[in-house]
Amino acid sequence: MNFWERITGSDMTKESKAFELRAAKLPADYQEAWKKIKTYLWPHADFTGRSLMPILDGVLGLLEETAADGQGIQEVLGNDIKGFCSALAGEEGAASFRDKWREQLNNNIAKKLGK
Amino acid sequence: MQKKHCKIAVDSLTTTRYYIAEHGSKQHLLSVIQNSKEVFALENLTEMLKGSLEGCILEIISRGETYGYEITRRLNALGFTDVVEGTVYTILVRLEKNKLVDTEKKPSDMGPPRKFFVLNDAGRTELRKFWERWEFLTSRMNELKERK
């Protein structure tokens, strides 16, 4: 990642486009799930969303493999797509900007109460 | 009740292929469906299994090189019908991140290359520790149950 990419996020745009091209080849029910996964993963992102990129890449790989096996999306992800996403984001240790804000808030309150 | 039956149907569908591959007939699968009362009783198994699933997967990988789909089917055939490949995937990601497994991408007959997993030394140590914890837990639980 060079300076230009860091400022504009152009590398991420490129990567996202590549993801969508891959996703477009998936069966319809898989594409629905892919949309949901992106929605659920978003709150786990850091400020720019860069931390999500490798996670999304991995998930897409899983979807591609299982679709090629001829499995239904229900068989692969079960009913709990949300739980699947938080497990993923948690495991990958992607600290989100919300975590940071929450920590700041907690620290501030602790300071005030301490006085 | 209706909902439960639907769930059984979905679970059975998930495992049909594996049962037939493993046992060469639908006989075993049918017996599982007949024993569905047992499955009802095990409805809340998922929560209980959560902490042990990593150990289960380490054990399966220790038997020889394998991949996500195969691991999931093995767990399903064992009776853990609620375990889906997505769940196994999240655990495999964690095992890889904690460097307990070595991975290799291999071309597949259908679709994209598959990621195969083997246990490394750290993984074997972790597996041994898992079974030690398990022994301890079960022995304590049994004592609690037996002692009046």
Describe the model.
The complex is a heterodimer of chains A (115) and B (148). Chain A is mainly alpha-helical and 115 residues long. Chain A is 74% helix and 0% strand. Chain A contains 7 helices and no strands. Chain A is flat and about 60 Å long. The N and C termini of chain A lie far apart (45 Å). Chain B has 148 residues and is mainly alpha-helical. Chain B has 8 helices and 2 strands; from the N terminus they run H-H-H-H-H-H-H-E-E-H. Chain B has helices at 2-23, 27-34, 36-41, 45-49, 53-62, 68-78, 85-97, 121-146, and strands spanning 101-106, 114-119. Chain B has a two-stranded antiparallel sheet. In chain B, a hairpin with a 7-residue loop joins strand 1 and strand 2. The termini of chain B are far apart. Chain A binds chain B through residues 58, 61-62, 64-69, 71, 74-78, 84, 87-88, 91-93, and chain B through 10, 13-14, 68-69, 82, 84-87, 89-90, 93-94, 97, 108, 110-112, 114-115.
Sheet with the most strands, sense and barrel status of chain A: none
Poorly predicted segments of chain B: none
Q: Structural class, judged by helices and strands of chain A?
A: mainly alpha
The number of distinct helices of chain B, counting runs of at least 4 residues, comes to: 8
**Strand percentage of chain A:** under 5%
General shape of chain A: flat
> What is the number of strand segments of chain B?
2
Residues in helix, % of chain A: over 70%
Largest sheet of chain B: 2 strands, antiparallel
The residue-averaged pLDDT of chain A reads 85
Helix content of chain B: 55-70%
Please give the oligomerization state of what you see: heterodimer
**Count of helical stretches of chain A:** 7
The most extensive contact between chains is:
A-B, 21 and 21 residues
SSE string of chain A: HHHHHHH
